[in-house]
Amino acid sequence: MKILVSNATAPRQRTGTDRDVVTRLTAAMKNARFDCECRSQLDEALDRFAVMERRRTMRSDLSNACSQRRKIEAILLFLQDLDDLKATEQDYSVFKDVALLFDDIADAAKRGSEAMRRLYSSNDE
Predict the structure, then answer these.
(1) Which superkingdom is the protein from (predicted)?
(2) 82: helix, strand or coil
C-alpha cells in the first residue's frame, strides 16, 4: 500500500494533510496482520510518531505566527510616515503605497490568525 503526499499543498492546509497521513499510516499498520510479538512495540512506535508529528506541526504554526507578528511590526515602522502626510500631498502614489502597507498587514494578520487557530484546534484531538 502506497501513501502519497502532495508537495503542492498550501501552507495553511499542510497541517491537516500531515495529520491525515499519520492517521492513514497508523490505520494501515494496525490493520496489517503481523505474525510476530512486536505488535505492542509497533503500536507504541506509531503513538510516539503521531506525538512527534503533532509537536512538529505545532512548532511550525507557532513559528509562522511569530514571523507574521514580526512582519506586521516592520510594516508599522513604515506606517509612521502616515502621520506626516497631508491631504494636499502632491504625489498621490504615496496614498497607494500606504494602502498597500495596510493590505500587507491584513494578509500577515490573517496568516498569523490561521496559524494560531490550527494550534488551538490541535488541542481538540
Answers:
(1) Bacteria
(2) helix
What average pLDDT is seen over the chain?
81
Alpha helices in 1-125 (DSSP H): 11-31, 39-79, 93-122
Give the chain's length.
Answer: 125
pLDDT tens readout for residues 27-49: 777 777 776 777 778 888 888 88
Inter-residue long-range contacts of 7-16, CB under 8 Å, 24+ positions, other chains counted: 11/64, 12/111, 12/114, 12/115, 12/118, 14/57, 15/57, 15/60, 15/61, 15/118, 15/122
Mapped onto helix, strand or coil, the DSSP state of residue 66 is: helix
Spans of all domains in the chain = 11-122
